[in-house]
Amino acid sequence: MTTIEITQVSRWFGNVVAVNDISMAIGPGVTGLLGPNGAGKSTLIHMMSGFLAPSAGTVTLDGASIWRNESVYRHIGLVPEREGMYDYLTGGEFVLANAELHRLPDPKAAARDALATVEMTDAADRRISTYSKGMRQRVKMASALVHQPSVLLLDEPFNGMDPRQRMQLMTLLRRMGDEGRTVLFSSHILEEVEQLAGHIEVIVAGRHAASGDFRRIRRLMTDRPHQYLIRSSDDRALAAALIGDPSTTSIEVDTAERALRVQAHDFGRFTTELPRLARDHGIRLLAVSPSDESLESVFSYLISA
Amino acid sequence: MYNETVARLTYRALLGRRRAILLSILPGLLILIAIAVRAIGGADDRVTEEVLGGFGLAAMVPLIGVIAGTGAIAPEIDDGSIVYLLSKPLPRRTIILTKLWVAIAVTMLFTTVPVLLAGMIMNGNSQQIAGAYTLAAAVASIAYSAVFLLLGTVSRNAVVFGLIYSLIWETLFGSIVSGARTLSVQQWSLSLAERVAADGTGVTSDVALPTAVILLAAVTVAGTWYAIRRLTVLTVAADD
């Protein structure tokens, strides 16, 4: 059993705080590190990978410090987000070089197996410079898996992959999690995390916003107050009808926009009641648009929840 | 201290088509000049000294040192591929020392061979001039490789700083300010060449031999030590 323990970790770059006092433990199974772009996910993964020293706090692998400790790489496999990867080599040469650098007893066999795992055997003799983004990603995966690590860290692994490649990688990661490996991947796409990770850690603006079972957090996200901008044939009559319904918590008549700004705390009820109330009062709905559906606003809500 | 895989990757990077052409231009030019000099004026010791010293040692050796020394590590740090070396149970000093050996080997290959050949073509190693400059090129290759490899680990503009050092400090200031010559790899290596060349030739240095040997060793060791230190604490940039 392998666990990465992050204890009161902060990381700042000059005056900018990228990661702010985060504590979490990443254990066996698949964990999703979720957050909007620029939230601090990559900074956190870099610290877990030993490529960045925490400004404060500790990052350990089964109790051993990761920073400036090369021996931890016997247990860690990394799939970085950046694309640089010795483009003048073939995919096979690249994975073999990684196996040799790990000083495996039979690097050729290990490289062959890793390439087969990511279904890149047929393209192994082609130069990496000729690969598509998805192929590069799979070869990166093979290089990370070549020494059979107990921990796999992946930074935005699905970027640039087509749906079929995405499914393949998800199946592979799920299998690795089921085998008892500690798999952590970062993503800013909710649906990716939903499909793959049972456990998630949410990072927003460098802070740890939520942690735990995905379904519970998803429910929290769905149940938060939602804001809508509504235009209708009779805004004031619609406002009067809506305020009588318990799903609505506030309504503002925006005269400049000639629209209603409605806040509803019961998402499910509001979405079914709004069209019914409009029909009963003979009001035509011209536009209904959510005004706070960005990931940032969803995550910001999680911080305060 | 030496890792074959790191060496292989570094050789492939340095001797890839584009960089190999870049490395071959100046040696090719030196040989062409030597052939032209011999064909036009016959064997002449003074001209041989001027060509090997003024072009070979003063311009070609440091420029090849810049290409090989910085090229051994800087592109990997720039494009992030260095993470594939750093994420292995491999001491960082092994990575630096291996890359240093490769940079030295490549610099020596592309400097000593053309210097010796050009010298032989021009005056057939009369008065040991070709041998002396070949030794100077070999010694300078070691120091330049260490200095420029270090530059590759500390700066994203390693090539620019390398060119400033080799062309502006050594060549320009070195010819105007006598003090600059004391802090010049070129002069230190010339000090060794002076010992090999026959008495009375123009192969001379402003730096005494013991000082030159100490400074060459100090720069090489200190440069390598600091490069190891830099790689040990190298932080890979995060995108957020």
Structural category of chain A: alpha/beta
Described by the principal axes of the CA atoms, the overall outline of chain B is globular
Any idea what the radius of gyration of chain B is?
18 Å
Largest sheet data of chain B: none
Give the strand line-up of the largest sheet of chain A.
6-7-8-3-9-10
Separation, N- and C-terminal Cα atoms of chain B:
35 Å
What is the name of the CATH superfamily of the largest domain in chain A?
Answer: P-loop containing nucleotide triphosphate hydrolases
Beta strand % of chain B: under 5%
Major β-sheet annotation of chain A: 6 strands, mixed
Structure description:
The complex is a heterodimer of chains A (305) and B (240). Chain A is α/β, with parallel strands linked by helices. Chain A has three domains: 1-75 and 150-222, Rossmann fold; 82-148, no CATH class; 224-304, Alpha-Beta Plaits. Chain A is 35% helix and 29% strand. Chain A is built from ten helices and 14 strands. In chain A, the strands form three sheets. In chain A, strands 6-7-8-3-9-10 form a six-stranded mixed β-sheet, sandwiched between helices. The longest helix of chain A is centred in the middle third of the chain and has 16 residues, at 163-178. Chain A is elongated and about 75 Å long. The two termini of chain A are 32 Å apart. The model of chain A has no long low-confidence stretch (mean pLDDT 89). Chain B is mostly helical and 240 residues long. Chain B has one domain. The longest helix of chain B is centred in the middle third of the chain and has 32 residues, at 92-123. Chain B is globular, with a radius of gyration of 18 Å. Chain B starts with a helix and ends in an 8-residue tail after the last helix. The model of chain B has no long low-confidence stretch (mean pLDDT 92). The A-B interface holds A 18, 37-43, 45-46, 49-53, 68, 70-71, 73-74, 76, 78, 80-86, 88-89, 97-98, 100-103, 143 and B 3-6, 8-9, 12-13, 16, 76, 78-81, 83-92, 232-236, 238-240.
